[in-house]
Automatic annotation (TrEMBL):
Domain N-acetyltransferase positions: 7-146
Gene3D superfamilies documented for this protein: 3.40.630.30
InterPro entries xrefs: Acyl_CoA_acyltransferase, Bact_Acetyltransf, GNAT_dom
Pfam families named among the record's database cross-references: Acetyltransf_7 (PF13508)
Name under which the protein is recorded: N-acetyltransferase domain-containing protein
Keyword Transferase tagged: yes
Entry GO MF terms: acyltransferase activity, transferring groups other than amino-acyl groups
Isomerase found in the keyword field: no
Top-level taxonomy: Bacteria, Bacillati, Actinomycetota, Actinomycetes, Kitasatosporales
SUPFAM superfamilies, per the entry: Acyl-CoA N-acyltransferases (Nat)
Keywords: Acyltransferase, Transferase
Length: 157
């Protein structure tokens, strides 16, 4: 059964953990080359997805032609992760995932983004997110300057 190239969004399942882990790892290294090299193996990241992410967050996956091509993870009103396979960037997939997150967030959504991640910042700002604060990196593992962005439902989109 083919999706004819259409992308659909569904909730993630336990069986998706290994693919989510692969997307997480490849997307981070492709879109954020300034991050330290990944020290964890695919198996370790898969276990983290299974044991932490799938238990703590609501996760949506983007599926095209029966293949998962991206995911978004929401913990309360905090968008913890939104990653895509590098080959599908700039095709509207991130917007579809973000729309699913926002539909399930009646009070709005916050997220942290590295200040260096100008592409992600531009993406979120184009979707109505505004800067709440900035930090020097003392609140993230990577110790890189970041910022908190917030979208509220009645903000201009």
């Amino acid at each position: 059964m083919s999706d004819d190239g259409k992308t659909r969004i569904r909730f993630a399942e336990e069986a998706d953990a290994a693919v989510i882990a692969r997307i997480h790892m490849t997307s981070r290294s492709a879109s954020m080359p300034y991050l330290p090299p990944q020290k964890r193996s695919h198996e370790q990241v898969t276990r983290w997805v299974q044991d932490v992410l799938l238990r703590r967050c609501r996760i949506w996956v983007a599926v095209r032609d029966a293949e998962i091509i991206g995911y978004a993870a929401l913990d309360g009103d905090m968008l913890e992760h939104l990653y895509l396979r590098p080959a599908v960037r700039r095709q509207g997939v991130g917007t579809l995932l973000l729309d699913a997150v926002r539909r399930h967030s009646p009070d709005g959504v916050c997220l942290h983004v590295f200040q260096q991640n100008t592409e992600a910042r531009a993406f979120y700002e184009s979707h109505g997110f505004t800067v709440l604060d900035t930090s020097d990196g003392d609140r993230n593992m990577e110790k890189l300057p970041d910022m908190t962005l917030r979208w509220t439902p009645n903000s201009v989109q």
